[in-house]
Amino acid sequence: MFSRIIPPSGPPRVLALAQLTNAFGDGAYYVCSALYFTRIVGLSPTQVGAGLTLGWALGSVSGVPLGHLADRWGVRGTAALLAVATGTAVGSFMFVRSFALFILAACLYACCQCGLGAARQALLAGLVDKAERTRVRAYLQATVNAGLAVGAALGGLALYFDTRQAYLAVFTMDALCFLVSALVLFRLPAVPPSPPAPAGEPALVVLRDGPYALISFLNMIMLLHMPLLSLVIPLWIVTRTQAPSWTVSALLVLNTLSVVAFQVRVARRVTGLDSASRSVRQAGLVMLASCAVFALSAAGSSAWTAGAVLLVAAGLQVLAEMMQASGAWAIGFDLAPPDRQGQYQGFFGAGTAVARMLGPLLLTTLIITWGPPGWLLLGGLFLLAGSAMRPAVRWAERTRSAVMAT
Predict the structure, then answer these.
(1) Of 140, 136, 92, 139, which Cα lies nearest the Cα of 112?
(2) What confidence score (pLDDT) does residue 402 get?
(3) Contact criterion met (CB below 8 Å) for 138 and 326
(4) Which residue ranges in the chain fall short of pLDDT 50?
(5) How many Å apart are CA 350 and CA 330, to the nearest integer?
(6) In terms of Cα–Cα distance, which of 214, 216, 359, 222 is closest to 280?
(7) Would you say 243 and 237 are in contact if contact means Cβ atoms under 8 Å apart?
(8) Element counts in the chain: helices (H) and strands (E)
(9) Do 276 and 330 form a contact (C-beta atoms < 8 A)?
């Protein structure tokens, strides 16, 4: 098992250690944050949702300029600085006593997280050979999932005690994990900063790269699988199926362990843009099958039948998730100019923030309100986005010479 999550020695292993450190804290934070803000701070669920939506909206547009700064200033130092800033943002949550302060802290947190993600991706691109990036990124994903699982277990202890002190301990741990991660990043070699854009040419060239924008949009649609497991599927299980509520935990464990065990193996199938596009297309097809099986779970006449159907659906979902991620990583890296990885990864990664921002409202309306037809409509959307990726990549390949020369 450990051989499947520990990357090769050198920069890949240091990057994995930095992200593993973060994952411990983040896993605990994700489990506890909503209850802390509602039960301890006293915010309403609507206020928490609105604050996080605004934060991720701002974060989705901050990744490009922060990624550009990473290109210009040096990605290692910028990544470390943003890790410290993110830890500071997490620490600021402990002093929130009003909705206005929560919005400020949420915006700071989301912007720093998006910028940190762009800088880390650019750091990986600068330190790892092109042929190895997808495989190393898969190792990092498996490592992160293992760390999140351990962190979530620690967060469960805070939920058990359900006291202000327990929740504050989680926030403190998460903030300290970001600081330790920043120190770990300085063990990496420095990546030379990119030169400034020539006079008369835009600094943020990614904003004029139409093919890359289309690819990023299609990837954002595929990333709508993210709110499914954390929000929509738990609501679906409780309100629309006969399965016991603990099935939610079983599906989460299945997802986490599958990524830890198989993400690297799935990523080995991606060796270039052709195989990456094919992986995303196949992911769309598997997601359609998953959505169809989730829709069937509402027809289960017993708890055991519904639970079995849900396990099959969740297994298909995590397979599609791993296929989509493997293809998207290769596409996002390979189509970005080597000296502008920061701003390009910031733009590509904005899809994650947008999915977190719009996904909950869109998917709860589509699935919880519409029921099985909503699942089939969502599956069709995944299929269309996955199928459109290959033509979009071909368009981008035809225009790369102009973009690289800009």
Answers:
(1) 92
(2) 56
(3) yes
(4) 405-406
(5) 16
(6) 222
(7) yes
(8) 14, 0
(9) yes
Cβ(104)–Cβ(373) under 8 Å?
Answer: no
Please state, in angstroms and as integers, the Cα–Cα distance from residue 183 to each residue in 25, 36, 114, 140, following that order: 15, 28, 19, 18
The rounded distance, in Å, linking the Cα atoms of 303 and 242 is: 5
Please compute, for residue 264, the number of CA atoms within 13 A of its CA located in the half-sphere on the CB side. 19
- Tokens representing 190 are 């420095």
Supply the pTM of this predicted model: 0.90
Q: Are 18 and 124 in contact (CB under 8 A)?
A: no
Residue type, 50: A
Residue 26 · residue 152 · CB < 8 Å: no
The Cα-based distances of 48 to 54, 80, 127 in angstroms read 10, 28, 38
All domains of the chain in start order, with CATH: 1-187 (1.20.1250.20), 202-406 (1.20.1250)
**Residue among 396, 392, 382, 244 nearest 310 (CA):** 244
